[in-house]
Amino acid sequence: MIKKLFSTMLLAAVLVMGMSSCGSEDKEQQRVCKEISEAMTAQKFDKVTELCGSLYERLPECSVKTLGDLTMSYITLSAVGIANSNEDQVVDCMRHAVDCYDEAMKKDPNAAKKLWDEMASKKNEQGLSINPTEIVEIFRQQLSAYDAATAAADSIQPSAESELASETALEVTEAVSQD
């Protein structure tokens, strides 16, 4: 219940302000950002995912402003994934948000920091604001814990499979030797 409430609040805040900084010099990036904004407003999240993916494929070519928009879009899409209980979507979108954030910081740290500060200072009609820097840091921590848990599960599973295979082989061997 709390997850869904948090997701709804986050989604509402990001929908209102998430795409406001779209202003790349690149006409194609501007066009795609505008389409993302329109799809976001219409809550057509499959379309948002598709459009974000097209820009994500060209991450190094994106301007800092476009990377900011992508970061906010992926934050929104992760909230949508939480609301829909879609763990794969949440994890993928969290990773993409972190990648976009990092790419912006690598490209122009001063411009990116200024952009993150501007985004964090904006409030929507409900008084909510989104701080991308804080959210990305939370995503990093959650992804680290997720990756550690996944790695631990993966390392346990092969042992269990090997043990099961050994037991099965032993049972087959015993069955064959009894005949």
Topology:
Elements: H1 2-17, H2 27-41, H3 45-56, H4 64-83, H5 87-107, H6 109-121, H7 132-178
Can you tell me about this structure?
The chain has 179 residues and is mainly α. Helix content is 80%, strand content 0%. The chain is built from 7 helices and no strands. The chain has helices at residues 2-17, 27-41, 45-56, 64-83, 87-107, 109-121, 132-178. Helix 2 (27-41) packs antiparallel against helix 3 (45-56). The longest helix has 47 residues, at 132-178. It is globular. The termini are far apart. Residues 15-19 and 159-179 have low confidence and may be disordered.
Given the structure, what is the number of helices?
7
Helix content: over 70%
Order of helices and strands: HHHHHHH
Low-confidence segments? 15-19, 159-179
Structural class: mainly alpha
Largest sheet: none
How far from one another are the termini? 59 Å
Please tell me the overall pLDDT.
Answer: 78
Q: Which range does the strand content fall in?
A: under 5%
Work out the radius of gyration. 22 Å
Bulk shape = globular
Please give the number of β-strands. 0
List the defining traits of the structure above.
179 residues, mainly alpha, 80% helix, globular, disordered C terminus
